[in-house]
């Protein structure tokens, strides 16, 4: 047992870089995943999240750095010797085999005894509720059932670490949210380490113990979902997480005490700056639509303003209302019962303590 395993680190990635020719895809990346943790790698297409997962799986040879699983250096081990189970976006099931044969195939090849195989399949089928499907072939299964079988194939391997590569992105929205709940319950039941890649921020927020937000092969922020949501380290992270998206207002910061944009002044006494010094200059104020109060409630806020309704977007459970603040678009949420129309006057306000300020040049949180 190495040091890492003793203190409960399941996967440790140290100074990992990956280049394809002259193109650097991952840059000196470090990530420690605790025993039994659910980590989500989140980011737009091409940010390197699937590439990183494939490096952990051993499907790609890395250019520099080391990968440890359970304290063992697996940097150059074959995928089958790394103690991982992989679940892909495409289910990649063998069409000519029954579900049972699909589940047992890897174990049969590895020479696992018959009774042990039967035991593992029975357990996986029970956990994933696919017992009635064991004698069917993949063509006779729905997308959700196929994805369950694909998860089952990783499950029977009895491994320490599960790697999921966008496993739900081929499914429709309703099925996605159902399977999301199942994956969460599965993690609670098994307590295995899970590393999960997605570009869907709802998936990330609901599943993760910690989210690693990636961009351009670099981890921008690694933290609990709520922390990333409430205190994003930069404008990219702030804009990537949250639906509907955060409002961004460009303006000027005056001695760290007031934010000004087109004749509007927002007092910042209640804003917690990251550093001790009070910055000045061009900056961007970010405020989430759900943190903006409306109507009577707006009057008790440290900052309030009035405007008129530009457009109204009904979302079902609530409604998104667009107005203008200092000439910039601003959206906020109101209860679905409120009937607002274009041109209606509105009063709105927010507590700057819940806002985020970003340097206009670097995009970093102030």
From TrEMBL:
It is a peripheral membrane protein. One of its GO terms (cellular component) is ATP-binding cassette (ABC) transporter complex, substrate-binding subunit-containing. GO terms for molecular function: ABC-type transporter activity; ATP binding; ATP hydrolysis activity. Keywords: ATP-binding, Nucleotide-binding, Transport. SUPFAM superfamilies: MOP-like, P-loop containing nucleoside triphosphate hydrolases. Residues 11-241 form the ABC transporter domain. Its main location: membrane. It is found in: Cell inner membrane. InterPro entries: AAA+_ATPase, ABC_transporter-like_ATP-bd, ABC_transporter-like_CS, ABC_transpr_MalK-like, ABC_transpr_MalK/UgpC-like, Mo/tungstate-bd_C_term_dom, NA-bd_OB-fold, OB_MalK-like. Pfam families: ABC_tran, OB_MalK. CDD domains: ABC_MalK_N. GO terms for biological process: carbohydrate transport. NCBIfam families: PRK11650.1. Belongs to the ABC transporter superfamily. This is ABC transporter ATP-binding protein. It comes from Mesorhizobium neociceri.
